[in-house]
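quick one, 294 residues, struct below
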Amino acid sequence: MDYVLLILVTVFCSTRAIIMKKMGHDSSNMSGVLFLNSNIFFIGSLTVILLSAGDLGALFCVSGASVLFALVFAVFLLVMQVTLMLALGMGAASLSTLIYSCGFVIPIFYSAIFLSEEISLWQWLGLLLLSVALIFIIPPKKGEKLSVKWLVFAVCSMVGSGSLAIVQKIHQNSPYKPELQGFIFYGLLFASVLLLLASLVTKKGERRELLKLYSSKKTTVLLVAVGIIVGALNVINTSLTGKLPSIIHFPVYNGCSLILTALAGRFLFGERIGKLKLSGFILGLIAIIIIGLL
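---
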């Protein structure tokens, strides 16, 4: 059942990325992106209420520890969002995305060192192959401007992404594990507030442009759909951090999500898949099979 849920959250993650692409938001518009994600996370928190099936005690009668976990979760999410936007804004978009995508290795090392999760030689090999596949799928482009400042932001986005997974992993391996829904509810709610505040300190004009873009019913429906997916995805994915080994969970989730999203881009948006990217898909699938079965 856990592996079925893993496949489900992978599909959720890809669907979220596809809808965001369909909405056509400009990733260089920092204020707009932060404001957009603030709304998405707020809708996600409301979705958690629906998933609790009316059990408000599961959301509001939680320990101070779970609330603290949620606040840390929200802070790392803010760091990840802001630093990724800053890195992308400096022009090295493909390299920024590649570095950010490697964040999944951080919880794997954490689990191996601090939780004594066993990782076989074959799985290490699979992880290496998956890392190479990411380079093929998101190849660095010629002429991208690099700087120490850009590198700091890109690495911070990766660390923020990996740290989010670690917070989820720690919570689901703690005595507060039963407070899953409360943890995610407050985490998304806090993240919504922090992202909203961050959007307010950036350029107002960018936010106005976004409000015009999302004034139609179609984009509002898509926005709500993404929020619902985010709420459900975080509840299920966080629960899996306490059930599946990190060496299986995070590579399969991140690798398959990236591959599915890229394939969807080909069939839904007509994006070209070159030989290098196709090789990355094949290598990535081989890596995931090695990690999951050997």
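The chain has one domain: 2-293.
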